[in-house]
Amino acid sequence: MSSSTRGAAVVTAASHGLGLAIAERLFRSGFEVLVTDLDAEQAADAAKGIGGWSARLDARYDQACDAIAERAAERGGLAVWVNNAGVLDPTWAHSAGMRRRILDVNAIGVMNGTMAAVDVMRKQRYGQVVNVVSFAGAVHGPGQAIYAASKHAIKAFSVATQAELRADGLTGVDISCVSPDGYWNPDRLEDGGAAVSFDGAHLTPERIATRIATLVTSPHPVPRWHRTQPRPRPTIKIATIMKLGARKSRDHDL
Predict the structure, then answer these.
(1) Scanning 20, 131, 221, 240, which has its CA 20 to 30 A from the CA of 211?
(2) Does pLDDT of 8 surpass 80?
């Protein structure tokens, strides 16, 4: 383990599984990690195990995310925010309540976390947001319709928000998406509907966490292999050119 030299890093849903692997990896990279989770006791136990600190967070509520971002910024600045929290219930026949829950956590929750972090990072003029979009953010998997829709939404949101930051001249704040395929999660193997996504030869949480640590130092809007979707870098460049052009036209008219 190492001590923090790079500021604070927030990881959502980090008391176990992939979130905990991300928190551990970021701590080893020199960040002071704030482990957040719906379960405050589990978050505290996880933080104690890696040498970080903890807080309860329900990312569905924007004010809760704002409070966490401000709290983290007090520890040497908010350097990283990883939106890892997500809900997967593999079936196309969701109840209305489950559809709402998936979208609230996977889409609205990530938007809340991103914007809370960005609000702080804009003032600092630096920082990295990493959104766990999943392979479902690039494909249209049967049995995962609502889940895939939520991940597609976050991919679009992430790229568009990055474009806005660049158009506003903020070059030190980055938003990256990581899109892992299925990963080894024994907790989900007991779920008959989810087992197909979590068994077999899949990625380890540690490997995904290492990729996220890499994105922190070398940000990229989405993985380069997302060829079936609109390319993000041209989107960012076009948005910047259009915004600058609009400003010049407005100034000329005045």
Answers:
(1) 240
(2) yes
